[in-house]
Write a structure and sequence with these properties.
The protein has 135 residues and is mainly alpha-helical. It has a domain of 84 residues. Helix content is 59%, strand content 3%. It has a two-stranded antiparallel sheet with strand order 1-2. Strand 1 and strand 2 form a beta hairpin. Helix 1 runs antiparallel to helix 2 and helix 2 packs antiparallel against helix 3.
């Protein structure tokens, strides 16, 4: 038998996936409002990073107390971290430039819309011609 000790994996990744799955299931069943769930994520996604860090710190101290190596930060965790940061940043930018509320639910911010639609123009030239029906 070898003396190789495989480090214990972190529990945070599976917990995030289970939580995300439950939220998506509730949104698909119309028990949660999907746009408000997205707006919640856009506002509070940095809390996921903080919670993740606290869980990793607790796992480190528990492993140190048990005199075993701390759980590793593997490639999957790095990919998950990158995705959370990229998607969270995009969601925050979208939330800042998208107006939600009872008066203007889902309307674009006019300044942000110019980026996609160009500058607004008013056409004050009008030419009235009689319709003759012939070409």
């Amino acid at each position: 038998m070898s003396s190789y000790y495989r480090g214990q994996r972190s529990i945070f990744g599976p917990i995030v996936l289970i939580g995300l799955g439950v939220l998506m299931l509730l949104a698909a069943m119309h028990k949660l409002n999907a746009p408000s769930l997205g707006m919640w994520f856009a506002r509070y996604w940095p809390a996921l990073l903080i919670i993740w860090g606290v869980v990793r710190l607790v796992e480190f101290f528990l492993a140190q107390r048990a005199d075993r190596p701390a759980p590793r930060f593997g490639g999957g965790a790095i990919v998950l971290l990158i995705f959370v940061v990229l998607i969270g940043s995009a969601a925050t930018a979208t939330r800042k430039n998208w107006h939600f509320g009872p008066d203007n639910a889902g309307e674009w911010n006019p300044d942000f819309a110019e980026m996609f639609q160009g500058e607004p123009h008013e056409y004050d030239i009008r030419k009235d011609m009689p319709f003759t029906g012939k070409q």
